[in-house]
Amino acid sequence: xxxxxxxxxxxxxxxxxxxxxxxxxxxxxxxxxxxxxxxxxxxxxxxxxxxxxxxxxxxxxxxxxxxxxxxxxxxxxxxxxxxxxxxxxxxxxxxxxxxxxxxxxxxxxxxxxxxxxxxxxxxxxxxxxxxxxxxxxxxxxxxxxxxxxxxxxxxxxxxxxxxxxxxxxxxxxxxxxxxxxxxxxxxxxxxxxxxxxxxxxxxxxxxxxxxxxxxxxxxxxxxxxxxxxxxxxxxxxxxxxxxxxxxxxxxxxxxxxxxxxxxxxxxxxxxxxxxxxxxxxxxxxxxxxxxxxxxxxxxxxxxxxxxxxxxxxxxxxxxxxxxxxxxxxxxxxxxxxxxxxxxxxxxxxxxxxxxxxxxxxxxxxxxxxxxx
Length: 372
Ligand SMILES: NC(=O)c1ccc[n+]([C@@H]2O[C@H](COP(=O)([O-])OP(=O)(O)OC[C@H]3O[C@@H](n4cnc5c(N)ncnc54)[C@H](O)[C@@H]3O)[C@@H](O)[C@H]2O)c1
Description:
By secondary structure, the chain is α/β, with parallel strands linked by helices. Helix 4 packs parallel to helix 5, helix 5 packs antiparallel against helix 11 and helix 9 crosses helix 11. The model has no long low-confidence stretch (mean pLDDT 96). Bound molecules: nicotinamide-adenine-dinucleotide (NAD). Nicotinamide-adenine-dinucleotide binds next to helix 4.
């Protein structure tokens, strides 16, 4: 049976979802809504689907089983809670909410109503991460001791972002992106996979700064969140991670896992087909690591030409995973409790300089069958 999904929020990222949605024939788009009528009209016409004038109109359509919340982070909690109150499952873009209190409200409401909420990012489900995770489980590098996770996105303010528009004309929302800061926007691309693989973080030691405050076009001013954050994350299982997020240093989205028997590396956490390499220990000598060897992916990532070259992510795969969880009456792999943990760590990275204890609990997701 096909699952009816409706999108709330027809901005920049909606294009990334819609370009790949037809790769998931089990999902059917019923319609779209945005509080800016021109945006939903443009997307509705482009997709040939219904345009809901209000969120209530969308929620009174019986064909909608999953509401896909692609609004700005400040609207995530409000839209998700409204959809839950109307009896709908929700797939939300990250972050789950902008405060722990709202995140907890979402988890509690979903559980009280026996509904499912899943949250991006979906790169946990990607071929590259599933391959790296399989190698860690198989003991290829022994016990993981240290992780270096980079999410440097380059100096975005020097990239001519004013000209970035998606297929239906939505501009890249620089006011929201600069205001939230790159860590709220991007840390989850490493935190979600790492906590899926290694379990919960129990302590965050963070430092942050705004190193390049003049990011707006000439004559414009606005809020600029931290553009550099670095944190040391202590995992309950003993692994230590250094995670850095910036829109200052040149692009580097790599993940390096150091075990006592070798080193695994995933080149780009935004690329589902990213190369994964391994270096094992050759012996007790100065060149103790063997040459890097590429690990064969658990299955190939099929990347279509119609998809933007700079986004090799299958965004709607997370919605399809949620639909399968609804059908199978199980917890989704991108669960709300896990997203709440990721949110708690993200906020600890940005809102304090110092040491923060992390309390939230979640069940680690199962790997995908094709990678187990
Ligand atoms: N921009 C990117 O490259 C990118 C990539 C991955 C994920 N994301 C995430 O996707 C989400 C959306 O980002 P975006 O870049 O598309 O932002 P955007 O500002 O381009 O689009 C968001 C849309 O949501 C609409 N909206 C906000 N509140 C609403 C409400 N209450 N009811 C109806 N519509 C509402 C806005 O009018 C806007 O059109 C964010 O959570 C962001 O972190 C963005």
